[in-house]
Amino acid sequence: MSLRGIRGATTVSANEAGEIRAATRLLLEDLVSGNKVQIEDLAAAFFTVTDDLDAAFPASAARLMGWQHVPLCDAREIPVPGSLPRCIRVLLLWNTEVLQRDIVHIYQGEARCLRPDLASS
Question: Are 50 and 120 in contact (CB under 8 A)?
Fold first, then answer.
């Protein structure tokens, strides 16, 4: 097995706890199902949010999904002028035999513009 990274991002329309958790949950569900991830194989999950999101920790969505034994970390993005607002990003570290080139990365909502080559429809 090797440690691999799965990337994803999404956006929300408002700085509301429920919206942040719901968008994060949908993103995580799609990342897990799209890659056939077993939660026990996750080494860690790192979440970042833009400065305009502070109503909830995205990691709280993972905890509510039952990710009790996965180390989780939330952080703020660097506030680069002109960057995409209300954006939640995640990096899942996954112990797997899947090759990095075969991993499905998911970009939803307005975050599709971050990686149009990888964006989900």
Answer: no
Instruction: Confirm if 66 and 40 have CB atoms less than 8 A apart.
Output: no
Amino acid sitting at position 18: G
Kindly give the confidence (pLDDT) of every residue in the chain, 121 residues in length, as a single tens digit, with 9 standing for 90 and above: 899 999 999 999 999 999 999 999 999 999 999 999 999 999 999 999 999 999 999 999 999 999 999 999 999 999 999 999 999 999 999 999 999 999 999 999 999 999 888 755 4
Q: Compute how many other C-beta atoms are within 10 angstroms of the C-beta atom of residue 11.
A: 21
Which residues partner with 48 through β-bridges? 75, 89
3 state DSSP class of 44:
strand
Distance from C-alpha of 23 to C-alpha of 19, rounded to nearest angstrom: 6
Q: How many residues does the chain have?
A: 121
All domains in the chain, ordered by first residue = 2-114 (3.30.1330.40)
**Rounded CA gap, 28 and 32, in Å?**
6
Q: Where are the alpha helices (DSSP H) in the chain?
A: 17-35, 59-64
* Predicted structure pTM score: 0.95
